Amino acid sequence: MRILRVDMTRLGVQWEPAPDLYSRLGGRALTSRLLLEECPPGCDPLGPHNRLIFAPGLLGGASVTTAGRLSVGAKSPLTGGVKEANAGGTAGDALGRLGIKAIVIQGQPASRGLQILHVTQDRAELLPAEAWRGLGTCATADRLQAQYGRQCTVICIGQAGELLLGGAGIVCTGEGEQRSNCAARGGLGAVMGSQGLKALVIDPTDSQPARFADPQNFRAAVRRFAQALLDDPKVGPKGGTHRYGTAAITAAVDEMGSLPTRNFGTGSFEGAANLYGERMREVILARGGRIGTRCMPGCVIACRNQYVDESGDPIVGTLQYETIALLGANLGLADLDAVARLNALCNDFGLDTIETGAALGVAIEAGLAQFGDFEGIAGLLRQVGQGTVVGRLIGSGAVAAGRVLGVRRVPASLGQAMPGYDPRSLKGNGVTYATSPMGADHTAGNAFGARKEVDPLGIKGQKELSSRLQIVAAMLDSTGLCLFARPPVISDPQLMLDMINGIYGWGWTTEDLDRFSRNVLRSELEFNRRAGITAADYRIPEYMREEPLAPHGATFDVPDSDLDAVFEGL
Amino acid sequence: MRILRVDMTRLGVQWEPAPDLYSRLGGRALTSRLLLEECPPGCDPLGPHNRLIFAPGLLGGASVTTAGRLSVGAKSPLTGGVKEANAGGTAGDALGRLGIKAIVIQGQPASRGLQILHVTQDRAELLPAEAWRGLGTCATADRLQAQYGRQCTVICIGQAGELLLGGAGIVCTGEGEQRSNCAARGGLGAVMGSQGLKALVIDPTDSQPARFADPQNFRAAVRRFAQALLDDPKVGPKGGTHRYGTAAITAAVDEMGSLPTRNFGTGSFEGAANLYGERMREVILARGGRIGTRCMPGCVIACRNQYVDESGDPIVGTLQYETIALLGANLGLADLDAVARLNALCNDFGLDTIETGAALGVAIEAGLAQFGDFEGIAGLLRQVGQGTVVGRLIGSGAVAAGRVLGVRRVPASLGQAMPGYDPRSLKGNGVTYATSPMGADHTAGNAFGARKEVDPLGIKGQKELSSRLQIVAAMLDSTGLCLFARPPVISDPQLMLDMINGIYGWGWTTEDLDRFSRNVLRSELEFNRRAGITAADYRIPEYMREEPLAPHGATFDVPDSDLDAVFEGL
């Protein structure tokens, strides 16, 4: 396995054998550890000392179903701490097949000219790309695939990343024409923009077949894993995840009073039924859109969809729960067409829909538009692509918007906007938002699935739940596995071990895997500590601790001492 | 001595005897200690738990020359830490004469209606003032003095404070028609705005004569102090301070290569001669403006001026060095008329000229205007008063502007913009900017005056110098004394003791006063520590440590270990 190091100051590339230190790391475990080793924690996230790291998970490139996710890591311009965001699509698989453990981008060009990195089995080169400046991610991906072949994965930024906006993500192509795979969170697109890198084109055509330490056991485990997913009542072909995608949970979150509505002003939305996953499916099918598409080949869950307009023309794919919550209910929009159109704009600009939805909610509270007014809201969002000051403010995320517009009610932790679960009525997620080294992030440890075990409105058990979930998330994010594929891995820990040991022959035990997962969090917390992040930063905003949320009248009342103790036993 | 506590939630006022804990504190010592005792360090600076404290210094109200400054303290929305900013004018004297040790504003009204606080010897009341919304500080002060009498001191915010902007200061009236006395830094005006307080009207008419513990010694010391100031070659009537005000140093700062020019891009300015204090004096006198005016009655230094236009009509008074540096050279403007007009806009909006000049420099670097183009720059600044998004961004200060506009070169420490000395070529000030609990602030410990003792370009001696100066600044800020009055107090430590002991009879020794001054810093550093500010935050921006500054090619190379050691012996 090798590392591709790209120096944007000298515009040079270098292949390196992966050092021992990194040899048993992948995905988030690798991006976070590499940051701790190489990135000065106090550095300017948009300066020359940051590192932007693309890494497949440990299972990447081995054709394990759902395991082709790409981890992207850097010091975050939003949180000021470590960041890993991962994306579906074909990037993780392509890098894995090329035997690339990580691509590390470092330095900044003296001039502001853009570059594209083209990577094949034998060669990596930087190509001048100033002409691509200002292109959205859709056109960028389309043209690069037209030029280099549709077998290539394109990883790119849009206008948001070029403008160094805190809400900018990094977008990857997926199976077929799938576009909306985004390593969305934490402003990683701004880091890529600051490095002058418009896109990576990964061509796995001439990759060598993977060699496995124990092919037989590996293949058996992979089959067992795929079958377990197919048999799972939730994620299998008859389950809600396949039928409705992530939007399957919209009704449940609304019913539990945790659906962010009008800038997290209430926890249920009178128009929520129009946003349900069931409704989304009906609309898509009635209009001739697609349900059950995949971001990566071989995925047996196939949670995705292509949302189309009344004429059957595609608007966006895939429409997902977090986007529906943040760009729908949170903006007072009870209309999936409206959400889909805002989503498409975000995708094309290369913007995190969560951060942007939260920023728009804050902007509306400041009077820049009206809740429920699609045209007014879309008018604000379109300005991101135009690069106006208003657009740049929206694209800079919720905290920046709140600061400039004088809005106190900013739903964010550690500088990053909250996803689609109000922490007052799903307190386990509040604990995760507050204590995750990543800032407010549901994928860091989502308590929604455990709502029947731990009372979402109670304090008891939340810190233990969040701690456990965060350790599992660190493991999944390091293997490249989709979060949806969690159930069989949790219920049968041997499954993951058999796959990893089958590939690498490390002979890992459950204890080894547990230690591995905990070490991910340890590295990250240590990076943040060195970056100056303290217990005072790992908090839920003051107003959410004091202003009750309808319909339950709940505040976020998990005591600070519980937050401080989440990682005590790590 | 008493404390006036104003509860903006219930719209009530209460007189309290000053508790023992605060009895020997004044000015900055009192505001900072009160914050440490009463303000939760992790609170939202613009939320209901912050405290806004107005306190005269220990000498306030005793008719000591230059000693009527008003300290204003709160948790800063810019730095996230403790803040004290002080202002000349008549406020400190008025409060001192009324026997008011501090006015503490707390809470926030449920509705957003504005209030005015009217304070006399016997009475304090809140009066509805929604009709005053949107008024600049000049009109606010004029109308309130017309209504309540010209003997009243008005302390107020302008549009910037109402909009909760990070660059908003608090403006006080002074002797006669003096207007531009501003507790400018750290966004304290936004805190006042968040509390719904538009203005305080302080009427000292019926105040009781001060009683002194040792009137004879006190009066002798006061006379000795005034005479020492009159005899001082710098601040006395023939000195540069009286003749040119703070602008006396413009030439010297330019010559030493530390004058912030074009967003701190170089340290000397080809048009600097047009901005010299000598030039300012010539222009003012030739046009029939005024030189040698005072902000407070009885000041023997009289450093101020009234800058007038070609017809002799007043533009602004007083035009000062920091403003000339930040709104002049830093914006590429070699024209005092231009600086004066920008200054007048800032004063009327209630904006810190340092923070705003730095924000404008960042905005120009982002392409929103051109260096040297007065009309373009004024067009941006005027938008603050109009409350546009562009205006709010400029008014939010340099860090917010840099973040939204994608500019890395933001001259700020701990969230607050640097004043008129580039830290690369006046490294003692760099140490102060980095390590002061107040963020980048020259008044926290200005090494300019020691440039002949400690090489401004060298590393050696800077940390000791900054430490010493910061302790002295804490003392001065706690007595209400003007920084200009420093020389006699430094050369004869007994002078301050005689004045304080003369008033209070505490029998303080030099050791007591030294401990008192160090305790101010200790309280502040402790508040910041609890607020989550760490060594990683007490730093100079990365680009200034790496990009050399012309003409000396200097970087800020004082090692982190020196910064971390500044308060080691505190």
Descriptive keywords:
homodimer, alpha+beta, Aldehyde Ferredoxin Oxidoreductase,  A, domain 1, six-stranded mixed sheet, 17 strands, 14% strand
Spell out the blueprint of helices and strands.
Two copies of one chain form a homodimer.
Chain A lengths: L1 E6 L4 E6 L2 H4 L3 H12 L12 E6 L13 E6 L6 E6 L3 H7 L2 E7 L8 E5 L4 E5 L8 H12 L4 E4 L2 H4 L7 E3 L8 E3 L4 H7 L2 E6 L12 H17 L8 H5 L5 H6 L21 H10 L3 E4 L10 E5 L5 E3 L4 H7 L8 H14 L3 H13 L8 H13 L2 H7 L2 H8 L6 E2 L2 E2 L9 H9 L26 H18 L6 H6 L1 H12 L5 H21 L11 H5 L13 H6 L5
Parallel strand pairs in A: 1-6, 7-12
Antiparallel strand pairs in A: 1-2, 3-4, 3-6, 4-5, 7-8, 9-10, 9-12, 10-11, 13-14, 14-15, 16-17
Helix pairs in contact in A: 2-18, 2-21, 7-20, 11-13, 12-14, 13-16, 14-15, 17-18, 18-21
Task: Summarize the structure in words.
Two copies of one chain form a homodimer. Chain A has a single domain, classed as 4-Layer Sandwich (Aldehyde Ferredoxin Oxidoreductase,  A, domain 1). Helices cover 39% and strands 14% of the residues of chain A. The first copy, chain A, contains 23 helices and 17 strands. In chain A, strands 2-1-6-3-4-5 form a six-stranded mixed sheet. Chains A and B meet through α6, α15 and α16 of A and α6, α15 and α16 of B.
